[in-house]
């Protein structure tokens, strides 16, 4: 009669912790991926193939396809942009200010908004795009 040495059971036991860790990582990344911040206004992102995709920051100026600007969810006319941004004391004026622009916006519609950003004392602004490769 041949007795089993129990080696087969021991090999399977070594894989169980590895499988547990993989499932925990899977659950973590599924939850972390759904907690990302979304803009409060519907906008079609411009796509780029150079810059990596990032989440839009909290304090963001959003320009929709019809040229309407929104700051913190409220519409802002370009003439009032300077006073609205000046009233925001939490805004870092030295950091690049993020602007999400719909791909249908023309440069002529964006010009008054960029002028308002300059008048508000911001050092610079950046246009947030969506990575076309992802």
Describe the 3D structure.
The chain has a domain at 47-131: Nucleotidyltransferase, domain 5, CATH 3.30.420. The strands form 2 sheets. The protein has a 5-stranded mixed β-sheet, with helices on one face. It has helices at 7-34, 81-87, 107-119; strands at 47-48, 61-63, 69-71, 74-76, 97-101, 125-128, 130-131. Helix 3 links the parallel strand 5 (97-101) and strand 6. The protein has 134 residues and is an alpha/beta fold. It is elongated, with a radius of gyration of 25 Å.
Task: List the topology elements.
Blueprint: H1 7-34, E1 47-48, E2 61-63, E3 69-71, E4 74-76, H2 81-87, E5 97-101, H3 107-119, E6 125-128, E7 130-131
Structural key phrases:
134 residues, alpha/beta, 5-stranded mixed beta sheet, 7 strands, elongated, transport
Strand content: 15-25%
Number of strands: 7
Average predicted confidence as pLDDT: 78
Helix content: 25-40%
Organism: Kaustia mangrovi
Subcellular location: Cell membrane
Keywords: Cell membrane, Membrane, Protein transport, Transmembrane, Transmembrane helix, Transport
InterPro entries: ExbD (IPR003400)
Can you give me a brief rundown of this structure?
The mean pLDDT is 78. 36% of the residues lie in helices and 16% in strands. It is of the alpha/beta class and 134 residues long.
